[in-house]
Every structure is written in structure tokens, then in C-alpha cells.
Amino acid sequence: MNNWDMVALVAAGGVGAGARYAVDAAVMRGRTDAFPLGILLINVSGSLALGFVLGLGTLVSPEWATIIGVGLLGGFTTFSTVSVDAVLLAQSGRRDWAVVNLAATAALAVVGAATGMVVGGLIPR
Known about the structure:
Layout: H1 3-28, H2 37-55, H3 62-76, H4 79-91, H5 95-121
């Protein structure tokens, strides 16, 4: 990875983090419940996108796969927020939602990644 690739990686991470904030704010706007649906959708869609990029295989150079996967999608998705949301839900007496949030994130993110890899693998080489 050369210096320009590293600059692209860092910039992509910033774009991903900004996109995460925008998507979460849009999804959660006007919601009165405490379930973090925005972050769940972000993590599942990010896993789907990463699976797709990896499923493309040699159609994407290793450098671009890293820039997109580690930078853009790494900045977009967030395990730390899921962890904090689960603790906050449990502390507020919503242990049921905390467990649902953790289980749904883990299960749906894996399904999303697998689906993305299959779809990406269908693209002709």
C-alpha cells in the first residue's frame, strides 16, 4: 500500500463515519423508543457491502478492497456502539432489547456478509 492508498484509506474512513452518523440520525429521527434500529441497519448493510466487495474477488484490487473494506465500511460500521447501546438498554431496564440488539446484530450481520459474498461472486469475471 503506497502513501496515496493510505490517504484514500483514511479519507474513506472519515466518509464512512460521516455516513454512519447521517444514516443513524435519519433512521432514529422521530423515534420515541430506545431500540437502536439505526445502528442495527448500519451494521447489517455494512456487512452486506463488505461481503459483496470480497465476493467480487479479483475484480477489485487488494488495495481498493482494503480502502473500501477497512476504510469506508470500517468507518461506517461499529461494534463499539452496539456494545454501548446494549449496556445502556440493560441499565435502563430493557435487558430484553439489549439481548435482541446483540443477537440480531450478530446474526443479521453474518447473514448480510454471506449474502453479499454470494451476490458478489455471481458477477462475471
